[in-house]
Design a protein that fits this description.
CATH class of the largest domain: Alpha Beta
CATH superfamily of the largest domain: Acetylglutamate kinase-like
Strand content: 15-25%
Helix content: 25-40%
Number of domains: 2
Distance between the termini: 22 Å
Number of helices: 15
Largest sheet: 8 strands, mixed
Structural class: alpha/beta
Strand order of the largest sheet: 3-4-2-1-5-7-8-6
C-alpha cells in the first residue's frame, strides 16, 4: 500500500490551521473559512475518524478585537492580546461545532507541560479522554502565560507534538501554500511541487524559506521541523493549501494534493516520544560514523564515539546527537555534564575511569534514554 492509499485508512487525524487560513487581510476572522473547516472536520468525524484541531490565530483575534493592525513586539502585550483572542477564537469554534451537533473542548498547552514526564503523560491522557468522549479537542499554545523559554515555539511544532502525544495516524497542516516546492513559487515560475518526501535531508531543508505571513510565526522551516517530529513518531504528515475547500477530505481520500511526508514504520512508545520531543534541548553532541551505526543497531552512546560537545549543560539534560555531516540522528538524556564530556570525548571506558575517578556510568547516553530520529 502506498502512502496516499494509507491515508485513506487513517483513524486518528490531527489538523492544524494557520493564522493566514482563518484570518482575513484586514485582521478580522475569516468566519466563512472557519465554518467550512469545522463542517469538514465534523463530516470526517461522522465517518468514524477521531479528529483533533490545532489552531493558530489567538493573537490575531485579540489584535482585531482591540483594533490593532501591527503585532506588538513586547511579550506582555502579546500575552494580553492572546488572553483576549483565545476567548474570542474558542467562542467562534464552540458555536460553529455546536451548530453541527458536535462538542468541542479547549486544550491549552505550554512547553512546561512536556518537560516533566508526569505532565506529558497527563496531557496525553486528557487528550485521549476527550477523544473517547467523542469531543473534538481544539488545541492552542497558552500564549497568555508562556514566555519564550517555555514556549513550544510555533503551532506547526505544537501540532506535531500533539500528533505524537495522541498516536495520530495522520497530521494535516493547512497553510497558505500548496506544499513544499523545489524553489520559491512566488519568485520562480518554474518551481515544482514536491509530492512526496521520504526523508528530511539537508537538500530538503535548503528548500525552506524564511518566516511566514505577517500575522503568523510559521514558515516552511517550522513545517519541516514539524515533519521531523511527525515522521519519527510514526505519523504521516501532509502540507496542503488551507483556502482550498474540501482539502482535508481530498488528503484523506488519497488524492495527490499537497506534499506528503512518509512516517517511519513504528510509533515511538510514550516515554520515547517524551524523550524525543517533550524535553528542552540543552546542547549537541557530534559523533563519528561508527557510533552512528552502533546506535542504529541498538547500542548505547559511548564516549569513544563522541567527537565534539556543544553547549553548557548538566547531567540528565537532553541533547541532540549529530552525525559527521551535522544532521540530527538521535536525542537522549546524558549521564555527564558538558564539562566532563569534553574531557572524556573520544576516550575508552578504561580511560574514563582515570579522567573522572568515581564515574558511575560507562555510557554517555544509555540506550533506554536514547531515541533515534533518522
Amino acid at each position: 500500500m502506498n502512502v496516499r492509499d494509507a491515508l485513506t485508512k487513517a483513524e486518528r487525524v490531527v489538523v492544524k490551521v494557520g493564522t493566514s487560513t482563518i484570518t482575513r487581510e484586514t485582521g478580522a476572522s475569516n468566519l466563512a473559512r472557519m465554518e467550512e473547516i469545522v463542517r469538514e472536520i465534523v463530516g470526517l468525524k461522522d465517518e468514524g475518524r477521531e479528529m483533533v484541531l490545532v489552531t493558530s490565530g489567538a493573537i490575531a483575534a485579540g489584535m482585531n478585537r482591540m483594533g490593532l493592525s501591527v503585532r506588538p513586539k513586547g511579550v506582555p502585550e502579546r500575552q494580553a492580546l492572546a488572553a483576549v483572542g483565545q476567548g474570542v477564537l474558542m467562542h467562534l469554534y464552540e458555536t460553529m461545532f455546536a451548530s453541527y451537533g458536535q462538542t468541542a473542548g479547549q486544550v491549552l498547552l505550554t512547553k512546561e507541560n512536556s518537560l516533566r514526564h508526569n505532565q506529558y503523560t497527563n496531557s496525553r491522557n486528557a487528550l485521549l479522554a476527550l477523544l473517547d468522549m467523542g469531543v473534538v479537542p481544539v488545541v492552542n499554545e497558552n500564549d497568555a502565560v508562556s514566555v519564550d523559554e517555555l514556549k513550544i515555539g510555533d503551532n506547526d511544532t505544537l501540532s506535531a507534538t500533539v500528533a505524537s502525544l495522541v498516536d495520530a495516524d495522520a497530521l494535516i497542516i493547512l497553510s497558505d501554500v500548496d506544499g513544499l516546492f523545489t524553489a520559491n513559487p512566488q519568485e520562480n515560475p518554474d518551481a515544482k511541487l514536491i509530492s512526496e518526501v521520504h526523508e528530511i535531508t539537508p537538500e530538503i531543508e535548503g528548500l525552506a524559506g524564511g518566516a511566514g505571513t505577517a500575522g503568523g510565526t510559521g514558515g516552511m522551516v517550522t513545517k519541516l521541523a514539524a515533519a521531523k517530529i511527525a515522521m519519527s513518531a510514526g505519523v504521516t504528515m501532509v502540507i496542503a493549501r488551507g483556502d482550498r475547500i474540501g482539502v482535508m477530505r481530498e488528503v484523506l481520500s488519497g488524492e495527490p494534493v499537497g506534499t506528503v511526508f512518509h512516517a517511519r514504520e513504528a510509533h515511538l512508545r510514550a516515554r520515547k516520544a517524551w524523550l524525543a520531543f517533550g524535553r528542552h534541548i540543552e546542547g549537541n553532541l557530534t559523533v563519528d560514523e561508527g557510533c552512528v551505526e552502533a546506535m542504529r543497531g541498538g547500542a548505547s552512546l559511548l564516549a569513544a564515539g563522541v567527537v565534539t560537545v556543544d553547549g553548557d549543560f548538566s547531567e540528565k539534560s537532553t541533547v541532540r546527537v549529530l552525525g559527521p555531516d551535522g544532521r540530527e540522528i538521535a536525542r537522549g538524556i546524558v549521564n555527564y555534564g558538558a564539562e566532563d564530556l569534553r574531557r572524556i570525548a573520544g576516550k575508552s571506558t578504561k580511560e574514563i575511569a582515570k579522567l573522572l575517578p568515581g564515574a558511575a556510568h560507562d555510557e554517555v547516553i544509555h540506550r533506554d534514554d536514547l531515541v533515534m530520529i533518522i
